[in-house]
Specification:
Length: about 650
C-alpha cells in the first residue's frame, strides 16, 4: 500500500509540473515547445507555483464560504503573476555590491531608492498567461479533489491536504524566486568582513620631487557628466564652470572619464588605492589586495586630511573607514576612533561646510606638504533635500515649453524629478566654483582635482543602482585647476596635463592614484616598482580595465569601455560575463572610429533625453540632429533651441 501511494504521488507530481509547464508554454506561444518546457520547469517555476498555490487556497476558502479571504487569495495570485517577472529579473541582477548598500544605510537614501524602483518593478500581466494558468489550476484542483475522495481517510482530511499543498506550492515559489539572491546576500556578509584586511598591504618605498604643489581633491556625489552644461548638456546647469573653462586657462577640463562603479564605496575604494596584483582586475574591488593612497602619501611625507559632508552612515563610510584610517585629520559629523585626530561638526550645506573647514585648516596647516580631500553630498537623492533652498528652482524654462513625452520619452519619471537633479547640478557648479575660488586666492602652489564618485541615471529614473546599470552612471566629470603659483612654479606639469586634456583619451578613475602621485611628484623607488601596480595617469593612452565588476547570481559581471574584447583570465570557480550596455558599445565604437559621427547622429531624436544622451555617448553636435526638434510618433513638434536659454 505504501509503495502504491508513493508511485501515485510521484505520478501526480510529474503530471502536475509537466501540466503547469505546458500551460506556461501555451501562454507564451513560443517555438520549440520541448526546450521551452524545460526552461519553464527549471527557471520559471516560481511564477506558476505561487499562482497555483494561491488558487488552491482561494478555492478551499470558497468551499467554506469565506468570500473575502478567497477573493484576497485570488488577487494575491494575480498580483504575483503580474510582478513576478520584473521582480525575479531584478533579484537575479543584484550583486554583492547591492547588498553592501544595506549596511548602516541612511533612511533618506533608502526612501529615494524605493522611489526609483517604479521604473523597474511594474506590472507585466499577460491575459493569455493568466487564462492558461487559471485553467490548469482549476483542472488540477478538480483532479486532486476527485483523487482524495476515493478513500474514506483521504476524504476526511481533504481540506487539510489541499491547504498543505497550497502552502508547499507557495513556499517552493518563494524558494525558487529568491534562492539565488539570498545566496549572494550571505556571500556579501562574509566578504564585507575581509575588505579591511585586503587594504592592510604595506605602502611601498617612494621618492619625492621637490617644489611640487599641494593638493585639494574635491570628490563629487552622484554627478553625471550627461547633465552638466560644461560637457554639452543643452541646459545651463554649470554656468560658473562653463565661464571659467572659457576665461580661465588655469582650469583644465578632461572629457571621457569613467567611474569604476556606480556605488560610492566600490568606486572610491578603487579610485583611492593602488592594486598589488594586476591579475585581480576581474575580481570585485572588495576582494582585491590594495594599498590606500593615504598610506602612500604618508610614506612620502604628505599629510592627508578628509573633510567629509557625507556623515558616518551609508556605504561611503565603508570606503572612508578603510582608505582614511591613517589620515592626519578627519572633519566629520561623528568621531572615528581610528583617525589620528577627529573634529566633530554639524552637517551644513557643502559650500558652507567646506569653506569653514578650509579656512580653519589654513590656520592649523602643518609645515609639511598636504593633500586635502573634500567629499560632498549634493547630487545624491532626494536631490532638493541636499541643496540650499535658493537653488531649488528650474535652471531654465525649457521643460515648461515641452510635453512630458518630448522630455523623457516613455519613462515614467516626472519632469519635476529631472528638474530637481538639474537644480542639484546647478548647486554643485556653485559649490565647486567656490572651492576653485579658494584655491585661486591661496599664495602657495596648490592644485585642485575634481571628480565624482559616479553619476545618476535621472532620465530613466533609476538613480545609481548597479543592478540597473546605464552608461551615465559611470560617465563623470574630471577637472584639474592650477592656481597662479602652481602654474608658475610647475609650468611643465601644467602644460603636460593641458596637453593630456587636448588628447581626449578615455580614462577611468582606476588611474586616479597614479595621477595624484604624479601631481605630487611621488615615484616608486626602484626596489619597490613591483610592490604595487601603477597605471598610466588620466589622459595617457591605455587599455581600459573592466569597470562595474560585480559578483551576482549569474557570475562575475563587468562592463567593457574598450572597442575590443578584453582577454578574460581563467579564474577558478568564477564565470566572467560581459554585461556592457548598448550606450557604452556605441560610445566605444565612435571613439575608435568604427562608427562614424554621421551614423551615430543620423536618426531624429524622439525626446530631450535622447538629444542629451547622444551628446554624451557619441558627441553629436546639437545642430547635427535632423528634423525640427524632439518628436513624438509621426508628429514633429517645434521645440525651443536650448542654446538660446543659456
Amino acid at each position: 500500500m505504501a509503495k502504491s501511494l508513493f508511485f501515485n504521488i510521484a505520478a501526480a507530481a510529474l503530471l502536475f509540473f509537466s501540466g503547469a509547464a505546458t500551460s506556461a508554454a501555451v501562454a507564451q506561444s513560443l517555438p520549440a515547445p520541448g526546450e521551452y518546457l524545460l526552461f519553464v520547469l527549471r527557471d520559471r517555476s516560481g511564477e506558476y507555483l505561487f499562482f497555483i498555490g494561491a488558487v488552491y487556497a482561494g478555492l478551499l476558502l470558497l468551499k467554506k464560504r469565506r468570500w473575502i479571504w478567497a477573493a484576497a487569495a485570488f488577487l494575491l495570485g494575480i498580483a504575483w503573476l503580474a510582478f513576478h517577472l520584473p521582480v525575479s529579473l531584478y533579484l537575479e541582477s543584484l550583486g554583492v555590491d547591492s547588498f553592501a548598500e544595506t549596511k548602516n544605510f541612511n533612511l533618506e537614501e533608502a526612501r529615494f531608492w524605493f522611489q526609483t524602483l517604479r521604473e523597474t518593478i511594474y506590472p507585466d500581466l499577460s491575459l493569455k498567461k493568466l487564462v492558461a494558468y487559471a485553467a490548469f489550476s482549476l483542472f488540477s484542483f478538480y483532479l486532486l479533489q476527485r483523487l482524495l475522495a476515493r478513500k474514506e481517510l483521504t476524504r476526511r482530511y481533504a481540506p487539510l491536504i489541499g491547504l498543505c499543498m497550497a502552502v508547499v506550492l507557495v513556499g517552493l515559489a518563494f524558494q525558487q524566486t529568491s534562492s539565488k539572491a539570498l545566496a549572494v546576500y550571505f556571500d556579501n556578509s562574509e566578504k564585507f568582513l575581509t575588505t579591511a584586511r585586503n587594504f592592510e598591504q604595506s605602502a611601498p618605498e617612494v621618492s619625492v620631487a621637490r617644489n611640487q604643489p599641494d593638493l585639494l581633491v574635491y570628490i563629487g556625489e552622484s554627478t553625471s557628466a550627461m547633465n552638466m552644461g560644461l560637457y554639452g548638456y543643452p541646459r545651463p546647469t554649470t554656468p560658473r564652470l562653463s565661464e571659467r573653462a572659457r576665461m580661465d586657462a588655469n582650469l583644465i577640463v578632461f572629457d571621457h572619464v569613467f567611474a569604476t562603479h556606480a556605488h560610492t564605496s566600490r568606486s572610491l575604494l578603487e579610485a583611492l588605492s593602488l592594486g598589488v596584483d594586476d591579475g585581480e582586475r576581474f575580481v570585485p574591488i572588495t576582494q582585491r589586495k590594495r594599498v590606500s593612497i593615504v598610506d602612500v602619501l604618508s610614506k612620502a611625507g604628505v599629510a592627508s586630511s578628509l573633510i567629509s559632508n557625507q556623515g558616518m552612515g551609508g556605504s561611503w563610510d565603508q570606503a572612508s573607514s578603510v582608505v582614511f584610517k591613517n589620515a592626519w585629520k578627519l572633519f566629520r559629523q561623528k568621531p572615528n576612533a581610528s583617525a589620528t585626530e577627529v573634529v566633530l561638526v554639524e552637517k551644513v550645506w557643502d559650500h558652507e561646510f567646506f569653506g569653514q573647514q578650509l579656512d580653519a585648516m589654513e590656520i592649523t596647516r602643518p609645515s609639511t606638504r598636504t593633500a586635502t580631500f573634500l567629499h560632498s553630498y549634493a547630487g545624491h537623492g532626494p536631490y532638493h533635500g541636499n541643496i540650499p533652498e535658493r537653488f531649488r528652482t528650474p535652471v531654465d524654462g525649457l521643460f515648461s515649453q515641452l510635453k512630458p513625452a518630448q522630455i523623457k520619452g516613455e519613462a515614467n519619471v516626472t519632469a519635476e524629478f529631472i528638474e530637481h537633479y538639474d537644480a542639484a547640478i546647478h548647486y554643485v557648479d556653485y559649490s565647486l566654483d567656490q572651492a576653485i575660488a579658494h584655491v585661486a586666492q591661496v599664495a602657495r602652489p596648490l592644485v585642485l582635482v575634481y571628480f565624482s564618485d559616479h553619476g545618476d541615471a535621472v532620465y530613466p529614473g533609476i538613480g545609481h543602482d548597479s543592478a540597473r546599470f546605464r552608461h551615465e552612471m559611470a560617465r563623470v566629470p574630471f577637472l584639474v585647476y592650477f592656481n597662479d603659483a602652481a602654474r608658475k612654479e610647475n609650468a611643465g606639469l601644467y602644460e603636460k596635463y593641458r596637453q593630456f586634456a587636448r588628447q581626449k583619451e578615455t580614462a577611468t578613475l582606476a588611474q586616479l592614484p597614479a595621477t595624484l602621485m604624479d601631481l605630487l611628484g611621488i615615484k616608486l623607488q626602484d626596489a619597490a616598482k613591483n610592490a604595487v601596480v601603477v597605471t598610466p595617469v588620466i589622459g595617457e593612452k591605455t587599455v581600459l580595465p573592466p569597470i562595474m565588476v560585480r559578483d551576482t547570481a549569474e557570475g562575475t559581471t563587468f562592463v567593457n569601455a574598450n572597442d575590443f574584447a578584453l582577454e578574460l583570465p581563467l579564474v577558478p570557480g568564477r564565470e566572467l560575463i560581459d554585461k556592457t550596455d548598448d550606450d557604452t558599445k556605441i560610445y566605444a565604437a565612435v571613439r575608435s572610429g568604427r562608427m562614424s559621427l554621421a551614423q551615430a547622429c543620423q536618426k531624429a531624436p524622439v525626446s530631450f533625453e535622447e538629444v542629451s544622451r547622444r551628446i554624451m555617448v557619441a558627441g553629436c553636435p546639437l545642430d547635427s540632429f535632423p528634423g525640427k526638434g524632439p518628436q513624438t510618433g509621426a508628429e514633429v513638434v517645434q521645440a525651443p533651441d536650448p542654446r538660446a536659454l543659456r
